[in-house]
């Protein structure tokens, strides 16, 4: 139970943001109206994805120096979890765009960059799944995964800032921190970001544990034969 | 009666009416928010539903977590 205190924290934080995210006053903005509350739900998806993908790249770096298969498993499972949140971020962003910008998808550097990032990670899964030999698979996948994280940073944070973008916080557009100077939004937004990152980590640990179990069962089966 | 329909009162009334229209227009640009939704109090029903769904998901996750823990212990024994 002592090891699991952060799981309770996860539940409490997200539950708090679900309630406070609807009840607390938000600044009245034209076009956005009440949809400004999406900030508490759409943006944390990306924070969770970027954090868990960073963890994935870190595991790949550790793999290359230690060549332990465990780090390869961790890197792959972290990337899997990251993509869950990436896809959720894309879908929630698309819904938000439909009712504020008027279209499900806009050919915008931020949006296309996010979509390309998800595709880069899908290629990682295909690459990793297509090599039979364990150590070789782990090594090639690790090198590609580090490259994938660098591309994530380029597509999600650097390129959108270099060109015009509809998305807040890019290309001269104000980020939301300009709107919530009254700081009531911060009291919901920061706990939301932390809560969703922790939930992603929880998913990740569950995935790693099941994958390790599967490996153990497989090696047991091999020794029986 | 005649005083109500003479020219001067008609002009005065028209001016008042225009004033009201002008006032209504200046008051309009306020951003529309779901204030009514909160006043009626029923937004809390939705929040409760969302909270119940989330608690359900968390309970499901905890059970899954425990199940994996049990399997890990079982495999360690063998």
- Radius of gyration of chain A, CA atoms, in whole angstroms: 20 Å
Instruction: Report how far the terminal alpha carbons of chain B are from each other.
Output: 106 Å
Largest sheet of chain B: none
N to C succession of SSEs of chain A: HHHHHH
Number of strands of chain B: 0
Give the number of DSSP strands of chain A.
0
Oligomer: heterodimer
The radius of gyration computed from the alpha-carbon positions of chain B, rounded to a whole number of angstroms, is 33 Å
Quote the beta fraction of chain A. Answer: under 5%
Helix and strand run of chain B = HHHH
Biggest sheet of chain A, in brief? none
Which percent range fits the helix content of chain B? over 70%
How is the topology of this model organized?
The complex is a heterodimer of chains A (225) and B (78).
Chain A (H helix, E strand, L loop, with lengths): L4 H19 L18 H25 L2 H32 L8 H21 L4 H29 L21 H41 L1
Chain B lengths: L1 H4 L1 H21 L7 H5 L3 H35 L1
Your description of this structure?
The complex is a heterodimer of chains A (225) and B (78). Chain A is mainly α and 225 residues long. Chain A has helices at residues 5-23, 42-66, 69-100, 109-129, 134-162, 184-224. In chain A, helix 1 (5-23) runs antiparallel to helix 6 and helix 3 (69-100) packs parallel to helix 5 (134-162). The two termini of chain A are 39 Å apart. With 78 residues, chain B is mostly helical. The mean pLDDT of chain B is 75.
Question: What is the structure about, briefly put?
Answer:
With 225 residues, chain A is mainly alpha-helical. Chain A contains six helices and no strands. In chain B, 83% of the residues lie in helices and 0% in strands.
Question: Any key phrases for this structure?
Answer:
heterodimer, A: 225 residues, mainly alpha, globular, B: 78 residues, rod-shaped
